[in-house]
Write a structure and sequence with these properties.
Order of helices and strands: HHHH
Helix content: over 70%
Number of helices: 4
Shape: elongated
Number of strands: 0
Largest sheet: none
Distance between the termini: 11 Å
Strand content: under 5%
Radius of gyration: 15 Å
Length: about 80
């Protein structure tokens, strides 16, 4: 149940994020823009937890939560500590 807000944020933010891509780039570059948008999202999903793991090893889990609270969330998946 604690992850429900995270999924809700992603569900609310994902479709508009993808829908705005055609408004931002010319039609001739649309396929490349969609590919870049998807690649960036998937890279962030892989790199973010890896960085968090290094921070946990170097400091502790509390530091990861403090950093997470300070960073703006573009995907609507901000950690909520209950």
């Amino acid at each position: 149940m604690a992850r429900l807000p995270q999924y809700l944020g992603a569900a609310m933010n994902g479709p508009p994020w993808q829908a705005i891509v055609p408004e931002l780039v010319p039609r001739s570059q649309l396929m490349a823009a969609i590919a870049l948008n998807s690649a960036g999202f998937n890279i962030a999903r892989a790199v973010g937890p890896a960085i968090a793991g290094f921070i946990v090893v170097a400091a502790n889990a509390g530091v990861v939560f403090l950093i997470d609270v300070q960073l703006p969330s573009t995907s609507g998946t901000q950690t909520i500590v209950l």
